[in-house]
Amino acid sequence: MRRLEQPHVRRAHTTQPSYLTQYLRITKRRGANKAPVAVAHSILDTLWHLLTNGTLYVDPGADYFDRRCDPAIQAKKLASRIEALGFEVTMTQAVA
Fold first, then answer.
1. Where are the domains of the chain?
2. Which domain of life is it from (predicted)?
3. For 26-44, what is each residue's pLDDT tens digit?
4. Average per-residue pLDDT in the chain?
5. Among 9, 60, 89, 95, which residue's beta carbon has the most beta carbons within 10 A?
6. φ/ψ of residue 38, rounded to 5
7. Taking Cα atoms as reference points, which of 1, 2, 14, 19 lies closest to residue 60?
């Protein structure tokens, strides 16, 4: 894992937008030392799927993690966290 980590992760997270955004997200949460290992794990996981299925790699894009998050689910989770603090929450949808 360490051999894969050094040059390939640095190259992958600068050339592939999805790995770059993953690297930046993990760096904020876990730190700069663990982020390359996590990205290397993602690269190995992707390679395994590509080799076992015989498919070509399609980059999901830089906004992949943002598209995965549903705003309605996030609002519900945040409301339950606020209610756990002892507040009453009423939500109305904003008109755009």
1. 2-69
2. Bacteria
3. 889 898 888 888 888 888 8
4. 83
5. 9
6. -65, -40
7. 19
Count of CB atoms within 10 A of residue 33's CB? 8
- Cβ-in-10-Å burial (0-12, 13-18, 19+) of 71 comes to exposed
* Residue-by-residue DSSP string for the chain: -HHHIIIIIHHHHHH-HHHHHHHHHHHHHH-TTTHHHHHHHHHHHHHHHHHHHT-------TTHHHHHS-HHHHHHHHHHHHHHTT------PPP-
Phi then psi dihedrals of residue 69, to 5 deg: -85, 120
Quote the CA–CA distance of 69 and 52 in Å, as a whole number. Answer: 28
Calpha distance 63→25 (Å, rounded)? 12
Task: Kindly state the tokens that stand for 74.
Answer: 């996030």
